[in-house]
Amino acid sequence: MFSVKEVEGAIPTIELADSDAASRAVLAPARGGILTELTVGGRALLYLDRGTLDDRTANVRGGNPVLFPSPGKLAGDAWSAAGAAGQMRQHGFARTLPWSLDDHGTLESGGAYARLVLRSSEATRAQYPWDFRAELTYTLRGRALRIDLRITNETGDGAPPMPFGAGFHPYFAVSQADKARASIETRATRAFDNTTKREAPFSGFDLTRPEVDLHLLDHGSTESALSIEGDPGARIAVRGSPEFTHWVVWTLQGKDFVCLEPWTCPGNALNTGERLIHLRSRETRALWIELSA
After folding, report:
1. Is the sign of the CA dihedral 182, 185, 187, 192 positive or negative?
2. How many other CB atoms are there within 10 angstroms of residue 200's CB atom?
3. 16, 78, 141, 169: least buried by Cβ within 10 Å?
4. CATH number, domain with residue 155
C-alpha cells in the first residue's frame, strides 16, 4: 500500500511509503529538496548528521544532496562560460535553497510520489544569470526510489544557451568497521585523487584511509553498486540516465558513510566546458537516477 504524508516540524518533511515493501523515503523541501532518509525492506540505507539538517545555516552532511548547476568545486569558487561569469560555492546553490512542494500523491500504476520545484531568483541570478525551472520528482515503488530531475531554460530569446551540470551526493550508511569489507562496482582504470590533486592508475578502493576522494575517469557505465562482503542484504545499486558519466567516491575515516556520487560532468566544468549540458531558450532536459536494494 502506497501513501504520502506531510509532517510539520522545525524542518517540515514529506514522507513517501510503500508498506508492502517496508520502504520509506523522507524529503525536506526547505533544505535543498534533499532526500534525508531512505529505508528499503526495513533497512536504512542513508547516513544523516541530524545536526546539520536542523541548522539552516549549515550544509547538510548526509542524505542525498542535489548538485546544480555545478557539481564539484570551481577553481577559486568562480566560473566563466557562454560570455558570462560569476562566483559560486562548491556543488552549486540548489542544495542550500528552499524548494517548494508542487504536487504529491499515489499513482494508479503503483507508487508514491512528490514533485518539488526550484525557480531562478535574485539569489540565483547573482551567481548564475540564467532564468530556469528545476523540478525534482521522487517516486517510491517497492525496493526502489527513482529521482527525476527536469531542468528548463526560461531565459528569453537572444540569450546564449544555458550551461549546467548536475549530480547527486548520496551518503550511504556504512560503518567504519564495515569499510574494510565494502566494495564498489566499476570498470575504471584511472582516477583523479582529489586529496593529492593527481591523476593515477586505479586498481581498487581502500575505504579505510583517512580520506578517500576519487573521481573515476573511465568508469565506463551509468550504473554502479556498493556492497559489503558477507552481507548480501547490504547491496545498494545506483543507476542513472545516459548523462551520468562521471562518478565520485568519497568517505572520511571515523564517519559511518561512503558516498557514491553520479555526476553529469567533472568538477570545474563551468570553466573547462567538459561535458556541460547546454539548453537553448525554453528547452528542457530530463535526467534521472534510481537507488535500489
Report:
1. negative
2. 12
3. 78
4. 2.70.98.10
